[in-house]
Amino acid sequence: xxxxxxxxxxxxxxxxxxxxxxxxxxxxxxxxxxxxxxxxxxxxxxxxxxxxxxxxxxxxxxxxxxxxxxxxxxxxxxxxxxxxxxxxxxxxxxxxxxxxxxxxxxxxxxxxxxxxxxxxxxxxxxxxxxxxxxxxxxxxxxxxxxxxxxxxxxxxxxxxxxxxxxxxxxxxxxxxxxxxxxxxxxxxxxxxxxxxxxxxxxxxxxxxxxxxxx
Length: 214
Hints:
Elements: E1 6-9, H1 19-32, H2 50-61, H3 67-85, H4 93-103, E2 107-110, H5 115-124, E3 134-135, H6 148-157, E4 164-168, H7 171-180, E5 183-187, H8 189-193, E6 200-203, H9 206-213
Parallel strand pairs: 1-2, 1-4, 2-3, 4-5, 5-6
Helix pairs in contact: 1-3, 4-9
């Protein structure tokens, strides 16, 4: 990979360990509504925007299922849990943040989450104000895996896409980066599953990415 002139970071699953909390709330709410969700349903949701998640759930549940009730109940359960317990930061992020700042590299978020949700999660994790630039779901016509969010992030960073490193934890996000022409680093998932793609570098965690910056 060429040296990074700027970094574009995903949020859920990459910086914040939010996905277990989402899965717990969706499962608990679904069971309360007499719809047991199978384990194999979860991997496909990784990295999706909210509208994509709900569309997938509606398709799986079938006609007649009370999707608004699932949305309402799971949201209430998730909010109560994170308000009480907070949200954990993924391993290596603090080291990566320190290295980006030391090197003077511009960086931003590019997330399928809506801005209000992203800001709330960052506050729950003690990271309020860390990201001056946040490219959220409202910033693009289409969510990942379309390239719109990544392209918008590169414009915000005033850096050509090919000189940006895009850090992602999901294949859906990596696809968006490849489509945008960014240099992609797949963190965590690719190493664990053995999956990879041409032009994609894999890292066990963000601490290793920090080493690569040096």
